[in-house]
Amino acid sequence: MKTIITLYFFLLFLSPVVAQQAINSVDSLETVKTATDSTALKKRAKPVFWQKMQNWENPSVERITWDQVNHLIYDDTGEFLSQLPYLRMWRDGDVGLFSGISINSAPSRLTQISIDGMPIPAGIWGQTDLTYIPETTLDNIELNPFAARLSVHTQQRETSKPFTLFDYVMGPYGSDTVRLRFQRQITAKWHINWGATFANSDGQWYTPYYGPFDANRVHGIIDYRLRPTLKIRYRFLQSDDEAIQSYPYFLDEYPQILNSKRDQRRFLNSLEIARLVQNADSTQKMKVFDKWKFRLYHWKLQEQYSSAFVSGRYTKPQPKYSGMSGFYLQNFDEIGLKYSYRLENRQLENAAFPGIKNWQEFDSQVKATHRFRRRLGGQHEFGIAYHSDFNTQFRWQSTLKYQLSQTSTLSLDLSSLPYFPQPGEYAHEIETVLKPNAGLKAMRYSQIGVRFDYAKDDLHFKLTAGQAVLSQAIELTLQDSLFQFMNRDETYAFPTFSMDTAVPLVLNFRLRFIGSARFAPLEESSLFAEMPSMNASAELSYARKFFEGDLLAHALLRARYWHDRYHFYNFQQGEFLGIWQGGKGSMLDAEVRAFFRDAMIFMKFENITGIEDYWRPYVLMRSMTMKWGVSWALWD
Question: Fewest C-beta in 10 Å: which of 26, 211, 227, 595?
C-alpha cells in the first residue's frame, strides 16, 4: 500500500507540467460549434471531420450524478448505496464482503450490477459482491427500478482538466478509510483515470465483535488515442480483503468456517477499442461518446478460509470468467438503435466440487429509443439470454415517458426478465447438509408500474408504484433431512411502492423523505430473507452560506425506520430454517458538514439515541458512534 501511495503523489506533483503541455497541443473536444477537429497529432496532419450523433437519454433509468455521490458521507460502497432511492441494503460484514441489495423491493438474488456494461460476477448463490464497485472513479450511477439493474459508469469524459480527489474517513473501532482519485491527460494521446480505496479496522462498521478487517481496492483506466476518432482503453481492478467472519453468510460458510479468517482476491483485466463520435446536442455535458465498442475481459476470483476448525486452508470454487462484449449505435430522425451482445465462458477451479463444471453464457439485445413530437418518448428493449445448461430465454422491457408539463413527467414501465440458477443452487453439494438439483429451471420476474416525477426549483416529488410477479422462484427447502434448492410451484405476486420527496421549508430548512415498501407476507421464503418489507428515512437539513458563498455550512438530522426483517437461518442454534422476525426498528443520525469551495469537512453521529436492537440474532446494533473526515476535490 505504501508503494501505491508513493506512486500516487509522485504522479500528482509531476504530471501537471506534462498535462499543461498536452493541453496546449490537443483540442479538448468541449466545443461543438464546428464539425472539424483542430487536433494536430502531427504538424501537417489534415483536419478530422467528426461524425455527429444524438446521445439519446435513457427514460427507463434514474440517474445519480457524481456531484450527488460526492456530497454523501460514507465509509464504504455499502453505506453509500444504502443512501440512494429505490435501494435497500443488507450485509453480513464490512468492506468487501457479500451483501444483499434490493432494488424497488425485488429479492436481492435478482439484482444485477454492471460496470460500464460488464456484469460483475456474483457469489455461487447469487450474492452481490461490493468489492467490484469502483466508487472512486465513477461518473454516474443508473438505477433501473423495473429491471432490478444497477449500472455503474466510470469517468470517461473527454477533458483536459487535471483532477485530484482525496477522501479520509475516521470511524469507530479504529476504522479509517482513505480514497484517492487521480485523472490526468499526460500527452496528446494518453489519458489516465486512477482511483484507490484503503480501509482497515479493529472492529466492524455496524456491529461489534466482528473485526478486524483490511480492504484495499485499486481501479484504473488508461486511454490511448490511435486516431482522433479511435481509442483503445485498458482497465484493471484489484481488490484484496481480509476479515474475521464471526457469523456466516450462507450455506457456503457452514459451521466449520465459523470464526475463520476470510481472504479474498478479485482481479479484472479488460481491453477495448471504441469509435468516437461527437454529440449533436451542444447542451449536454457529454460532448464525445462511443459509437461502437469491442471489449475483451477476464475476471479472476480467489477466496479462502483458515481457522482452527479447518485443516490447512478451506478453498471455495475459484471462478475465472473470460468473455467478449460490444455494441453499435445507429441514429435515424427520431429513433436511436443500440445493438449489443455478450459472450462469456465461466470456469470454476476446485477439485472439491466436481459437480460444478464450466458453462457458457450469451445474451444479445436490441434497444430502440424514440421520440414522438416533443412530449412523448420511450425506450424498448428485446433480447435473448442463453445458458449452456438451461433453455434459452427471452427478455424484454418497455418504457413510455410523457411530458405532462415543463415540471412533471409520467412514465409507464413493463418488463419480463429471466434469471438462471447459480452453480451453488443446482450443482453444489455439502455432505449431510445440501444436495444438488440439476432439474432447476430459470426464474422469471415481471413487473408493470408507473412513475410520476415533479421538479420545480428546490421542490421535488417522485412516486413509483407497481405490481411484481415472480414465477418458478428458486427457494431453499428441506428434503429428507437435507437442504435442496427447488422451483416453487406457486407464483409470487406483490405490489411495490417507492417515494422520494424533497420540500424546501422556511429559513433555509429542507425536508426530504425516501421510502420503499413491499405489500405482501413473504417472510417464509429464503429469497426475501433479511430484507425488511418496508424501510424509510426522513431528513431535516439546514444550509447557510457565508463569505459571499465561499463557505457553506450544512446540518442534517436523519431518522431511519425499517419494518419486519426476517432471518432465514441460525447457525448458533443449528436451526437452518429458524425464521427470526426482527420486527420494527429505528435509528436517529446527525451530520454536520462545512464546504469551502471544493473541500468538505464533516462529522457524523449514528444512533444518537442509543437504541438497542439486533441486526440479526446474537448481533447487537451499536450504540452511538461517531465518524469524521475530509473530502477535497482539486481541479489543477
Answer: 227
